[in-house]
Design goal:
Belongs to the 2-oxoadipate dioxygenase/decarboxylase family. This is 2-oxoadipate dioxygenase/decarboxylase. GO terms for molecular function: dioxygenase activity. Its EC number is 1.13.11.93. The chain is of the alpha+beta class. The protein contains 13 helices and 10 strands. An 8-stranded mixed beta sheet has the order 2-3-4-1-5-10-7-6, with helices on both faces. A two-stranded antiparallel sheet has the order 8-9. A hairpin with a 4-residue loop joins strand 2 and strand 3. The longest helix has 20 residues. The chain is globular. The termini are far apart.
Length: 374
């Protein structure tokens, strides 16, 4: 039934919206709210079927292993669409993935988590992205707060009962299902001027938050393309706000799970050194290596790439895009006597750490980007 619906929807979407046949990083999908689509019983069926038309999920299902449910295959296809947009826009991430694959097991480069940024106003916050993952069995975990940055975040663990951990094979989004980390700007804590700018664009989005996943997969904004002056004004107060204004729901970063690597690069310190020796610039905020207070979660990241963005007032400027992160999760103390081959993912430190994440956020900051180009 799902396969027939996907095929039918693919034809419908191609006829009604031929512009979806090519990813356009500056295309806005606010016009979608003017279209009419079939009503379904699932709140995310439109999102996933829209992706299906663009990326031929029906064809992928026919070639995939029969033991995975179609719903899981659809979700992986959506993640794959997001990943393709991310790699196309961020050459550093692609170059690092290719480099690591060249010296490690190319079929087992696994993602620890995927991260997204949102505006916490009028439905466009964490829930706008989280709803898709919750529909596919992800579970909400604890909240993290960043008062100085006026942010909060939630992370979501992969669905249980599916091959998201050690039994899964494959690389990237086709490997173990990643954790999801979604942050939100607390817009009501900004200055009245900054709030006015953000709300102006949110108004042009309307119910665009309902299509956050689609926007992420297509690399599109759900609101009107901004003025350069508005971008500049937001950047003075919140670089996070300015980043979100021009990047929308695009993947902010993917994170390589270093402890799943097969060579000496499984040690994040060795990986950091390897990357620096190959000319990659790592985020130096708080030190290249970010370590949780318990010493069990180690993280690092590159400095974000930049992308040329044409603003609606005619200015074309370089703006920060995304970056790639690395995470090593050490074995919990109660499992320290396990043999290496006995250690599974649930034996390792889970979750996130505010102190680490606060510094990782700086990967898109002007200070770090200046270091990159200086």
């Amino acid at each position: 039934m799902a396969t027939k619906m996907l095929s039918l929807y693919s034809t419908t979407m191609t006829e009604k919206m031929p512009y979806l046949s090519t990813i356009n990083p500056h295309f806005s999908i606010i016009s979608l709210k003017k279209k009419s689509f079939p009503v379904t019983g699932s709140r995310n069926l439109f999102t996933t079927t829209a992706h299906a038309s663009r990326f031929e999920v029906d064809h992928q299902i026919s070639r995939s292993q029969g033991h995975e449910e179609e719903s899981l295959l659809l979700m992986r296809s959506v993640l794959g669409s997001m990943e393709r947009v991310y790699l196309k826009r961020n050459p550093t991430a692609k170059a690092i993935l290719d480099l690591v694959k060249s010296v490690d097991d190319a079929d087992h480069i696994c993602y620890d988590h995927l991260a997204f940024r949102t505006f916490g106003v009028k439905g466009h916050g964490i829930e706008s992205m989280a709803s898709f993952f919750l529909d596919y069995g992800y579970k909400q975990q604890e909240e993290l707060k960043f008062p100085a940055k006026k942010l909060k975040a939630l992370w979501f663990s992969p669905p249980s009962g599916l091959p998201h951990e050690d039994a899964a094979t494959g690389s990237g989004v086709n490997g173990p299902l990643p954790r999801i980390f979604i942050s939100e700007l607390l817009v009501d804590q900004l200055s009245p001027q900054a709030q006015e700018i953000i709300e102006k664009y949110i108004e042009t989005s309307g119910s665009g938050y309902k299509h956050a996943t689609l926007a992420s997969a297509l690399g599109s904004l759900t609101w009107k393309k901004p003025f350069f002056s508005d971008f500049q004004q937001l950047a003075k107060e919140s670089e996070y706000a300015a980043w979100t204004l021009v990047n929308g729901y695009a993947l902010n970063h993917v994170t390589i799970s270093t402890h799943r690597l097969k060579t000496h690069l499984t040690n994040i310190r060795a990986l950091n050194q390897f990357l620096q020796e190959n000319g990659f610039n790592l985020n130096s905020e708080g030190g290249v290596l970010k370590v949780s207070p318990d010493g069990l979660l180690l993280q690092s990241s590159t400095v974000a790439d930049s992308i040329s963005f044409k603003f609606s007032d005619g200015f074309t400027e370089s703006v920060p895009c995304s970056y790639i992160e690395f995470a090593e999760r050490l074995v919990l103390p109660q499992y320290k006597n396990l043999l290496k081959e006995e250690v599974k993912e649930f034996h390792r430190r889970d979750g996130f750490e505010v102190g680490n994440a606060d510094k990782i956020f700086e990967s898109t900051s002007k200070e770090q980007l200046t270091r990159r180009t200086g």
